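Q: What residues go here?
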């Protein structure tokens, strides 16, 4: 199947040294990884040791989110080619799922690393800073096909001009759902039509399954984040980013990137029940 022009991929992969560049014999481990810059970015605002752990965990999360964006970009590019490369996309989605798993683990780990009382000793220095301003998190939602919340939130995000430009650009670029439609054709417009594609097995069905699991992994992330927040600040305290805290986060657990895929999954069972 061919990529409609509207879905032609235009992702830019930047900031990399060209492949095959001659190795620099003087390079050390810390030069290569820019460890001095990494260490310099770790700047607690209080003397509280727990704040250092808090920053470390957030930096780790942002690195994992960045890696996931690369995998999703590559998956979309592979599927938007004139001859979609489903196998390559599935490999990227597998790696992406491994990264989401680590992001979930990190949230599970957090209350064991910082107690609510320790958090209270430095929470004031966050001011209005909140994970809700993580541009990379919103890029993942946009790439996954859920543009609505990011579009609504864009103005309230307090992002830098560069982050705003990136998010606006992402909002008009092809996402995973566009890329999926490019592979399965028009049949994905309704759950019944999609069911045919899914029942036929093969790469389209495998891809649909990978998307469904990517979606449900992020449901698990949102639920684990809400649980962790309740463990850290309770069920009613407000967030530093201006929401009503855990209540807002639980409402976000309802979001699905691909409701139609879940509908098609229910149809599989309804059809089986009707035919037996
Ligand atoms: C003590 C630890 C944490 C607490 C108490 C906390 C609390 C909150 C709260 C209350 C919100 C809602 C927005 C607000 O009003 O601030 C939020 C949103 C968010 N947080 Fe956290 N968070 C913590 C750690 C993390 C970590 C480690 C990450 C990793 C990336 C993270 C990522 C996010 C994201 C992406 C959102 C937006 C979620 C959405 O809108 O669905 N948070 N957080």
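A:
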């Amino acid at each position: 199947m061919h990529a409609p022009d509207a879905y032609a991929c235009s992702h830019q992969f930047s900031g990399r040294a060209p492949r095959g560049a001659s190795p620099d014999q003087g390079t050390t481990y810390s030069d290569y990884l820019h460890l001095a810059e990494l260490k310099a970015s770790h700047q607690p605002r209080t003397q509280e040791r727990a704040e250092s752990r808090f920053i470390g965990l957030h930096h780790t999360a942002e690195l994992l989110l960045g890696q996931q964006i690369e995998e999703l970009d590559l998956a979309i590019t592979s599927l938007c080619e004139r001859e979609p490369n489903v196998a390559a996309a599935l490999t990227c989605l597998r790696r992406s799922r491994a990264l989401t798993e680590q992001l979930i683990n990190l949230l599970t780990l957090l209350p064991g690393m910082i107690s609510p009382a320790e958090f209270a000793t430095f929470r004031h220095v966050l001011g209005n800073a909140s994970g809700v301003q993580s541009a990379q998190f919103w890029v993942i939602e946009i790439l996954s096909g859920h543009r609505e919340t990011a579009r609504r939130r864009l103005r309230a995000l307090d992002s830098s001009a560069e982050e705003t430009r990136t998010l606006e650009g992402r909002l008009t670029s092809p996402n995973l759902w566009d890329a999926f439609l490019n592979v399965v054709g028009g049949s994905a417009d309704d759950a019944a039509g999609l069911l045919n594609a899914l029942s036929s097995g093969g790469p389209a069905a495998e891809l649909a399954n990978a998307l469904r699991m990517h979606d449900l992994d992020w449901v698990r992330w949102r639920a684990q984040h809400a649980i962790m927040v309740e463990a850290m600040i309770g069920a009613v305290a407000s967030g530093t980013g201006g929401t009503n805290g855990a209540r807002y986060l639980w409402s976000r657990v309802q979001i699905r990137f691909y409701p139609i895929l879940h509908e098609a999954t229910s149809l599989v069972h309804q059809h089986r029940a009707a035919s037996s």
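A: Context that may help when evaluating the design: The chain is about 65% helix and 0% strand. The chain has one domain: 48-275.
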